[in-house]
Amino acid sequence: MSVAEIKQSAESRMTKTLEALKTDLAKIRTGRAHTGILDHVTVEYYGSPVPISQVANVNLVDARNLSVQPWEKNMAGPIEKAIRESDLGLNPVPMGDTIRVPMPALTEERRRDLTKVVKSTGEDAKIAVRNLRRDSNEAFKKLVKDKDISEDDERRAQDDIQKLTDRFVQEVDKLVAQKDAEIMTV
Question: Which CATH class, in words, describes the domain spanning 3-27+107-184?
């Protein structure tokens, strides 16, 4: 592998880490309803667990309510049960063929707990970025050992990877701060 390939690989993997963080942060609810909140809730469908979005339409009714419309009438019960038993703390209400999912207002204590979860998730993303930096630096050391590049080239490459790492860590901090502000807004 060349220095450029290592840098490119590190950057693409750090970008994937950032995308994973964005996905994780989107799952943390802020008191406002959004359809993505039910993405990781699975329901038993003909013997296999599938996401709710694959067996029903999930729509936004208003700022505090979701509507789940199962494609098959017999799926309403299992979907309602899956939402109720999920770790989201939601209480779905069956309304004929559809299921209404009201979003409860967040208490101050719950908001603080959620900010701790957000910070922990952000820290995990930073650790992942730093691990990618370490892997890249080890790859550069291997190139020096194999005499493919000089020590000066290695030092320059490590500086570039450090700048890349700093940029992604700043981006993680920015996303965490935005989510914190969003959670603490009443």
Answer: mainly alpha
Task: Kindly report the pTM of this predicted structure.
Answer: 0.69
Question: Within 13 A of 123's CA, how many CA atoms are on the CB side?
Answer: 6
CATH number of 35-102: 3.30.1360.40
Q: How far apart are CA 154 and CA 162, in angstroms?
A: 12
pLDDT in tens, 90-144: 888 888 888 998 887 778 887 888 888 889 899 999 999 999 999 999 999 999 9
Q: Coil, strand or helix: which one is 45? A: strand
All structural domains of the chain with their residue ranges: 3-27+107-184, 35-102
Cβ(64)–Cβ(32) under 8 Å? yes
Among 174, 186, 177, 176, residue whose Cα is nearest residue 32:
186
Structure tokens at 168: 């992604």
- DSSP letters for 115-164: HHHHHHHHHHHHHHHHHHHHHHHHHHHHHHHTTSS-HHHHHHHHHHHHHH
The residue with tokens 């050391």 is: 141
Q: What separation, in Å, do the N-terminal and C-terminal C-alpha atoms of the chain show?
A: 51
Say yes or no to pLDDT of 16 above 90.
yes
Asked whether this chain's domains 3-27+107-184 and 35-102 adopt the same fold, the reply is no
